[in-house]
Amino acid sequence: MMNELTRSCAIVVGVGVRAGIGGALCARFAKAGMPVYAVGRDAEKLRTLIDEIAKDGGNATAVTLDASRPEEIASLFDRIASDGCHPELVVFNASERNVPKAFLDMTPEFVENLWRVCCFGGLLVGQEAVRRMLPRQQGTILFTGATASIRGRAEFGGFASAKAGLRSIAQAMAREFGPKGIHVAHIIVDGMVDGARVGEFGNGIGKSILLSKGTDGTLDPDAVAESYWQLHLQPRSVWTHELDLRPFCEPF
Q1: Is the dihedral of CA 245, 130, 9, 166 positive or negative?
Q2: How does residue 43 score in pLDDT terms, banded at 50, 70 and 90?
Q3: Measured distance CA(147)–CA(109) in Å, rounded
Q4: How many angstroms separate the CA atoms of 217 and 229, rounded?
Q5: Bridge partners (DSSP) listed for residue 160
Q6: What percent of the chain has pLDDT over 70?
Q7: Does the pLDDT value for residue 205 go beyond 90?
Q8: At what angle are helices 43-55 and 21-31 packed, to 10 degrees?
């Protein structure tokens, strides 16, 4: 391991294809000149994303792991340090699909899996990021939330409980580490994202839903990524803790 970490980098945990929030975040950070570590579960999707970023002149590295496993998250940050990098910007964007499940039909395994991916993984990433940022007393940690972070709908109790837990972790971190120079923010993505995940849903059903939303009726992943980047650039005198993003026509 190098004694001096000479380069700052960005880490995005929860990345799939380019046409999604995770992929858009990686592309935006790379465009700004930051080396990016794109972390996800699908090696093939990550390879495609890395190639696309490279064609645009960016520098990105793919890392395949399970964000709900403490040893794998610790290994990720150790690897980055061994590359001579220190994390300046870390995003936890991992999530499971938000699928309906009647309250009485939710199994313990179903709820636990949602919690491990959507909440516990955020805790692990947050802890490792803070450990690396504290010596410099600077850095940005961002968490992707959802409508479910602040409202539990019928048949979505499992997902809502996990996302609400992630929001509480972000709040606690901001209160503890904001005074120590670390900017922690939670972004509520309220509405349908015009990305690959929705488009691939239900043998064409997802594409039909996207079309029905009309122009500007969905969240553009690149526009979302720009909002994350602007959070990172904020001076500490005007730090935002929670940002609520939705299409202009989305009710709330």
Answers
A1: negative
A2: very high
A3: 23
A4: 22
A5: none
A6: 90
A7: no
A8: 30
Counts for the chain of helices (H) and strands (E), in that order? 9, 7
List Cα–Cα distances, 171 to 143, 188, 217, in angstroms: 10, 13, 29
As a whole number of angstroms, the distance between CA 5 and CA 250 comes to: 44
One-letter amino acid of 201:
F
Once rounded to an integer, what is the mean pLDDT over residues 10-36?
97
Is pTM, for the whole model, over 0.85?
Answer: yes
Q: Which of 192, 201, 249, 251 is nearest to 224 (CA)?
A: 192
Q: What is the dihedral of CA 199, 14, 97, 198, to 10 degrees?
A: -10
Q: Which residues are CB-neighbours of 23 under 8 A, at least 6 positions away?
A: 15, 16, 17, 38, 49, 221
- Report the length, in residues, of the chain: 252
Q: In the chain, what's the furthest Cα-to-Cα distance?
A: 55
